[in-house]
DNA sequence: TGACATCGGGCG
DNA sequence: AATCCGCCCGATGTCA
């Protein structure tokens, strides 16, 4: 394995060969236009390459545009963010002159050819030095293997995220527009409501005797409801559903459609869908737990009602796969809880709990497990806890301990070593309440974060399998990842490869399980569907 | 006019 | 009084 570091210099790019100790070796100066050619040549060579760079978002989009796919990289920005908080990392080894610069480094802005390139704070940082520090931290870590796996998985995720934006999710604007027209009426002129909303609005105003009511204003709506004799504390849908009043159904319907219009209406189509693709911007490591975030287009909350518009190209298919009950399975694995892993042997973990006689019904199982992971102590889920704690002592013990540690103000960590942030100052008068809230956060952090690590390993392995499956051509000409949603992937593939893709998705899931939990027997069964449209899955 | 907070609701 | 974890986003409302 050869490591080549790319850095920007004055008017040119430098490709630096790194020695085994991370020291800078031979260096090649490249004009910006020659970088892609250089990368393609080395990537296609006999020696595997790991590209080391400050930030994947600052390098990879241009390479992809030039048709260059990269097998592996080290993303120093993401690695730094993890190591900075990890209890497995010696902070003094990570400290350097430009540490504050690395701390503050944000993902690169999307390249805009219309703008003159501004000064990039990343150009003030020395990637060779930062890489050596990160290597030193890994070498000295008591959990070197786990931490190294985490950094590799995070970097691989950065490659996937860039590729997802590059290829985009196939999106039929015509299908989407037809759907909108069916639900809302024809697209109205600027500043006007569609006919269906207009009709519902009049109905609501009449029912509450408020001819000027704007239901989009919670304050105004609350006053009108209370004036109508409905003693509600807020205007959430769940609250409104409990009310018996002739205006409520129209109000709820108005809210639902108004939300669709605002979030995923014609304006969304105009902004986010071009050339038949929804190009979401994914942000790896964007959530404290290690989950991805997204920016723009609400990529991680595409409503099911518009998913029929996500449709594979002619002659292509989607392979949609999601993990059933990822987080409870991860909890069984990371705690080494044999009884819970036994329940997880079933395709439906909750059914497995019923079959083992732990709980009476599937609903009880779900309620209890979710309560254990989120910190629900009241009502049904709270009543389930003693029984779960007896039956699954290690699993429940792990989340309880994470909660107690959080309440004491301590850092908790995921299986691979991502650390939780330190709590801020708790206001004295709210001490207990804030403390318990932080405990619920740390309780959930260890499970959600380790789930994210499983998903990263799944993605990374799947990405490589898909590439090998494809034969020739660019990423978008082969089976490729088209969307990722915490515990679900959408792969876009030529129809004749769909079955092999489905097999690859399953194989990648078992690889991920082995990477995280070794020989401990916890299963990660997938629901896999080969479909024309995302909406046809599950 | 822009910055910021709050609410409600979409996703996992 | 009483529904738990993490996000993103648009509309509204307040303030400078």
TrEMBL record:
GO terms for molecular function: exonuclease activity. Residues 306-497 form the DNA-directed DNA polymerase family A palm domain. Pfam families: DNA_pol_A. It catalyses: DNA(n) + a 2'-deoxyribonucleoside 5'-triphosphate = DNA(n+1) + diphosphate. It comes from the Bacteria. It is an enzyme of class 2 (transferase). Keywords: DNA replication, Exonuclease, Hydrolase, Nuclease. Gene3D superfamilies: 3.30.70.370, 5' to 3' exonuclease, C-terminal subdomain (1.10.150.20). Its EC number is 2.7.7.7. NCBIfam families: PRK14975.1-1. This is DNA-directed DNA polymerase. It comes from Blastococcus carthaginiensis.
């Amino acid at each position: 394995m050869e490591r080549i570091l790319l850095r920007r210099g004055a008017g040119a790019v430098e490709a630096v060969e790194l020695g085994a100790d991370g020291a800078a070796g031979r260096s090649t100066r490249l004009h910006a236009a020659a970088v892609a050619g250089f990368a393609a040549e080395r990537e296609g060579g006999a020696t595997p390459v790991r590209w080391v760079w400050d930030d994947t978002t600052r390098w990879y989009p241009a390479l992809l545009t030039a048709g260059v796919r990269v097998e592996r990289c080290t993303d120093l920005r993401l690695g730094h963010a993890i190591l900075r908080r990890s209890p497995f990392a010696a902070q003094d080894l990570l400290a350097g002159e430009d540490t504050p610069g690395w701390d503050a480094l944000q993902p690169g802005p999307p390249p805009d050819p219309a703008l003159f390139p501004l000064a990039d704070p990343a150009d003030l940082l020395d990637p060779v030095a930062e890489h050596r520090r990160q290597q030193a931290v890994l070498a000295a870590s008591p959990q070197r293997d786990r931490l190294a796996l985490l950094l590799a998985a995070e970097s691989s995720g950065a490659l996937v995220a860039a590729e997802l934006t590059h290829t985009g999710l196939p999106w039929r604007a015509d299908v989407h527009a037809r759907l909108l027209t069916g639900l809302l009426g024809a697209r109205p002129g600027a500043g006007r409501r569609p006919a269906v909303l207009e009709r519902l609005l009049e109905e609501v105003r009449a029912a509450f005797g408020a001819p000027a009511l704007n239901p989009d204003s919670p304050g105004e709506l609350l006053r009108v409801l209370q004036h109508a004799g409905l003693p509600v504390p807020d205007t959430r849908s769940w609250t409104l559903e409990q009310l018996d009043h002739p205006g409520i159904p129209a109000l709820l319907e108005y809210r639902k459609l108004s939300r669709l219009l605002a979030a995923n209406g014609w304006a969304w189509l105009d902004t986010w869908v071009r050339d038949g693709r929804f190009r979401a911007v994914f942000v790896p490591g964007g959530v404290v737990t290690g989950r991805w975030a997204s920016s723009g287009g609400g990529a991680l909350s595409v409503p099911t009602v518009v998913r029929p518009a996500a449709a594979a190209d002619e002659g292509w298919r989607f392979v949609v796969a999601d993990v059933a009950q990822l987080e409870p399975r991860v909890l069984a694995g990371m705690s080494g809880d044999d009884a819970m892993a036994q329940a997880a042997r079933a395709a439906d973990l909750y059914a497995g709990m019923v079959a083992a006689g732990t709980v009476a019904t599937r609903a009880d199982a779900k309620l209890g497990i979710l309560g254990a992971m989120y910190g629900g102590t009241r009502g049904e889920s709270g009543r389930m806890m003693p029984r779960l704690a007896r039956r699954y002592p290690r699993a429940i013990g792990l989340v309880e301990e994470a909660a107690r540690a959080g309440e004491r103000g301590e850092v908790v960590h995921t299986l691979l070593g991502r650390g939780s942030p330190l709590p801020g100052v708790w206001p004295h008068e709210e001490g207990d309440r804030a403390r318990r809230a932080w405990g619920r956060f740390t309780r959930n952090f260890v499970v959600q974060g380790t789930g994210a690590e499983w998903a990263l390993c799944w993605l990374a392995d799947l990405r490589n399998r898909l590439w090998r499956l494809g034969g020739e051509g660019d990423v978008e000409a082969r089976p490729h990842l088209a969307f990722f949603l915490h515990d679900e992937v959408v792969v876009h593939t030529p129809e004749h490869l769909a079955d092999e893709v489905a097999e690859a998705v399953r194989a990648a899931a078992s690889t991920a399980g082995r990477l995280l939990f070794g020989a401990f027997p916890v299963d990660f069964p997938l629901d896999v569907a080969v479909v024309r449209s995302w909406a046809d899955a599950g």
